[in-house]
Design brief:
The protein is an alpha/beta fold. It is built from 12 helices and 8 strands. Helix 1 runs parallel beside helix 2 and helix 1 runs parallel beside helix 12. It is globular. The structure holds phosphoenolpyruvate (PEP).
């Protein structure tokens, strides 16, 4: 039985004050939740103040990005070692806003993924197709390439530190979520692919989140799908009540 996982990606939003307040509201409402794993991923500058708020709760801290190298002359970057030092347990890798918006290549994403898990971080690895790719019936070809270029660099043991997030690019921040049927179709395909490459035991244990315009109204029906093991929430994670309701929905 895979425990549901709800993660909030705050993107480049909040101020120090609003980040702390948002974290406080989440901790108050679901901070001791045991039936669902919950994580929040604030912007880098607010990791430490949010960490203080999360202390003593069951909510995990995540970052939105990481560089593959542990240290060095990489201006503006943050290493896995630094994230661990700031109390992060999770890091988002391969988000489409970085793949497509910032031109991150498969190879760079693979290096980040390998470095993150080697250092002991858990990774939320995002994959997903654009609208054009879906319209061209390329969804599975795109996902296959994204998976092959990333998780194939991991051992089955390292893969236990990874959660996949299916995030169709056309659904991110658009208000148009994948339907539960569309999400289930892809998640089940991803699990089959994992089974072929890592064995069915690994595939059955690995959590696959859905992300893309998840909110308090559509979360329950997405989470009711057998292969949807949680959600990665962007916009709606910035409103405490929305996020809390989504966590409650994950309890089933
Ligand atoms: C995301 O940023 O991962 C995301 C899914 O965003 P949104 O929920 O706003 O679509």
């Amino acid at each position: 039985m895979r425990k549901k996982f709800v993660a909030g990606n705050w993107k480049m939003h909040t101020t120090r004050q609003t980040a702390v307040h948002l974290a406080q509201q989440i901790v108050e409402a679901v901070g001791q939740e045991t039936a669902v794993d919950v994580a929040v991923c604030p912007p880098f500058p607010y990791l430490l103040p949010v960490r203080e708020v999360l202390a003593g709760s069951r909510i995990a801290l995540g970052a939105q990005n990481v560089h593959p190298e542990p240290q060095g002359a990489f201006t503006g970057e943050v290493s896995p070692v630094m994230l661990l030092d700031c109390g992060c347990q999770w890091v988002i890798i391969g988000h489409s806003e970085r793949r497509r918006g910032l031109g991150e290549a498969h190879e760079f994403i693979r290096r980040k993924l390998v470095a993150a898990v080697q250092h002991g971080l858990q990774a939320i690895l995002c994959i997903g197709e654009t609208k054009q790719e879906r319209d061209d019936s390329q969804t599975f070809a795109i996902l296959r390439a994204q998976l092959q270029d990333s998780v194939m660099a991991l051992t089955a043991d390292q893969l236990t530190k990874v959660v996949l997030a299916y995030e169709p690019v056309w659904a991110i921040g658009t208000g148009v979520n994948a339907t539960p049927v569309q999400a289930q179709e892809v998640h089940s395909w991803v699990r089959d692919w994992l089974g072929q490459h890592f064995g069915s035991g690994v595939a059955q244990r690995l959590r696959i989140l859905y992300g893309g315009s998840v909110n308090s109204k559509n979360a329950a029906s997405l989470l009711a799908q057998p292969d949807v093991d949680g959600v990665l929430v962007g916009g709606a994670s910035l409103q405490a009540m929305e996020f809390i309701t989504i966590v409650q929905a994950a309890k089933g």
